[in-house]
Specification:
Distance between the termini: 12 Å
Structural class: mainly alpha
Shape: globular
Oligomer: single chain
Number of strands: 2
Largest sheet: 2 strands, antiparallel
Strand order of the largest sheet: 1-2
Number of domains: 1
Helix content: over 70%
Strand content: under 5%
Length: 191
Amino acid sequence: MLTLLFNFPVQFLMYIPGMIFFLRFLMQYARCDFYHPVSQFVYKVTAPFLKVFRNLCFDNINVAALLNMVLIPFIIFTLFSLQGVQDGFSSVSLKDFAVLFAINIVFVVWTVIEILLILLIVTAVLSWIPSARGINIYLLTLLKPVTGFFDKYIPSIGYISLSFLVVFLLLQFIDSTIMPRFLFFVIGLAK
């Protein structure tokens, strides 16, 4: 199982569905333009899966997208993890499933942080390209729930918002320092 955890291409492929459902959640939470092509693509890809939970939504919080963001990668992760087990599900204890679920939660949170970092970098790069103004405004709207909290407390310098930089540095610190240690802590609980 540990070799699967550190096999980056397999891990990345397992969490692509989670990424898409997180984007769906973030788009709905930030109230992004529904008719934007990116929104339409994510909506059409995720719509059949969200019908399973009957589009559980509270105001602009899409609980169904969050559940799918956690459950679909967990199912894929569990199937990949049990691939080498001889007896299949019968030889796996409840503790093993709990550990797999805890590791999955860590990876889901880590994937969310990675997505936010990628969105922040792409937004920063696109801000220097005048012809990409439309997509940049869309990405800024998408990131507003994350950067908006810090906008309240960190004053901007003219038209430059420092909250963008603070969020990037904070997420980078969590991504490189806290998440690996937390993952090894969860793996240590399995022993």
